[in-house]
Amino acid sequence: MPQRVCEPVPPLSAAMREGSRPEHEEAEGTGFVADLLAGRAHPDRYAAYLLRLRVVYAALERAVRDHRGHPAVAAVHDESLCRVDALDADLDHWWPGRDRAVSSPAADRYRARIEEARTTPPLLVAHHYTRYLGDLSGGRMLAQALRRTWPGLDRRGLAFYEFDAIPKPVAYKRAYRDRLDALDLDEAARAGVVEEVRRAFRLNRDLLDEVGAPAPVTPRCRG
After folding, report:
1. How far apart are CA 55 and CA 43, in angstroms?
2. Can you give the pTM of this predicted structure?
3. What is the reported pLDDT for 222?
4. 218 φ, ψ to 5°?
5. How far is CA 42 from the centre of its chain?
6. What is the Cα–Cα distance from 116 to 124, expressed in whole angstroms?
């Protein structure tokens, strides 16, 4: 009887990347991202996007800080990645002096899922990976596109994409993935993290679709 050969278990970072590839590509292929890259996005629509991101990052950064004592969360926690202050600086440029409350079912669902992930801290790692490694990768392309569309933008208008404490993003991302691969997770926990990355990309796609919808997306001001 032939001996059964066990397939090698891929590193967690590779499983997260490959397991979520279809969802990642769908998010990158949304109409709003295409408009940003092509210089077709209206400034108010971009502000609407930033307002929704602020909802997501505020929830994520609170959750990660609250659970930074957990070994899995501690492996990725890094205050230099945090984006809320940068988003506030950008909103001062794109949405000056206006109420930052936003009516967004997509952002609310995203925030709610992050809150649910608190009960299983390794799932927060999936959201951390999805957001911040994306910011250090594709986010740089978006920044270049925005500079082409609106020449003369200063750092305040693009602070979201600036990581002053991370001068070498490629090396940082490599070290980040090494820390993911070193996590001591059993098979079920690994599978849960991979599935949560897929979920995070779907939530991000829904947010991008909402901003890019034909219906008015200008945030509602509360008088």
Report:
1. 19
2. 0.91
3. 41
4. -60, 125
5. 22
6. 9
